[in-house]
Write a structure and sequence with these properties.
single chain; Spore Coat Polysaccharide Biosynthesis Protein SpsA, Chain A; alpha/beta
């Protein structure tokens, strides 16, 4: 297995039942973590009390602590967790609506040992829509091939199914706390520039989609955000600017992807009646992709039509 110490960081906001189940999957690991940091992001319900009860009852054989902070968002919570574990080499983030199989950490650390140059490792993800019970496996084998381009094109491979090197996270400044969503896309794009990414076969994390909706607990922050596509487009634009001087070809590809995202964002906002914001998105799309007929048609339609029906 990979040498070094691994910390598990679990951010949580108002999920008093989901958090206990996630933590149970941590202590069940065949390769125990060296530390566990739970960061309560200003919950106003019983979440922190439930975590304290769990810590007292589970009595984990490794260092485990609850850190509490005012409500600042998931990026700030994850960054706080990193600061609370200064001697760790690897970090595994686990969101409270996700679960790990017992061999999760063991499989990741074995893969990282075989690829010591890797900055991170990612496995597949089993996604279950809790209200309907429908499940599917989301494969992530693509992450090990042309990682930066693939993340930009497909989106982030996942936080709760990825283990990252702590020193590399610190080198890029951690998560951008100004981003309310797409913070994982931003971080993983930047991290991918530091070295190769490894794929962990034959294991999968379990994502419980819309768990909060069924439990009456807080929803996923990213899915609750009304302008996810627009934020993603801004992240891609910023990343293209960041890599432009060193890799103009990659920057051009990223700008093209950003243009497509701006069009999607504009259609989403127009369908919600947010016409001025939608117009701005279509303008940004045409700036990146002047020949984009869909963006041009959407812009004209928004300008001359009194109604925009959601599509």
């Amino acid at each position: 297995m990979a040498e070094g110490r691994v910390v598990v960081i679990v951010p949580v906001f108002e999920r008093p039942t989901a958090i206990v189940e996630a933590l149970d999957s941590v202590v069940a690991q065949t390769r125990r973590p060296d530390a566990l940091v739970i960061v309560d992001d200003g919950s106003r319900d019983a979440t922190a009390a439930r975590v304290e009860e769990w810590l007292a009852g589970a009595s984990p054989s490794f260092s485990a602590e609850l850190v509490r902070q005012s409500n600042r968002g998931v990026s700030a919570a994850r960054n706080r967790g990193i600061l609370a574990a200064p001697t760790m080499d690897w970090v595994a983030f686990l969101d409270s609506d996700d679960l790990w199989p017992e061999t999760y950490l063991e499989a990741h650390l074995r893969t990282l040992s075989a690829h010591p140059e890797a900055v991170a490792s990612t496995c597949d993800k089993d996604s279950t829509d809790v209200p309907t019970g429908r499940s599917r496996r989301v494969h992530r084998g693509w992450v090990a091939v042309d990682t930066t381009r693939e993340i930009a094109r497909r989106g982030p491979p996942g936080i709760s199914n990825t283990v990252m090197r702590v020193s590399d996270l610190r080198a890029i400044g951690g998560f951008d706390e100004d981003l309310a969503t797409a913070e994982d896309l931003d971080l993983m794009l930047r991290l991918s520039l530091l070295g190769p990414w490894s794929y962990v076969p034959k294991t999968s994390a379990h994502y419980r989609h819309r768990l909060g909706e069924v439990r009456g607990e807080a929803p996923s922050l990213g899915h609750a955000h009304a302008d996810r596509r627009g934020v993603r487009a801004r992240v891609l634009d910023a990343f293209a600017e960041f890599v432009g001087a060193q890799n103009p070809g990659l920057a051009a590809e990223i700008r093209d992807l950003a243009g497509r995202q701006w069009t999607r964002a504009g259609r989403q906002l127009a369908g919600r009646g947010r016409r001025a914001e939608a117009a701005h998105c279509f303008d940004r799309a045409l700036l990146a992709r002047p020949a984009d007929l869909r963006a041009r048609w959407c812009r004209l339609r928004l300008r001359f039509s009194g109604l925009w029906k959601a599509e």
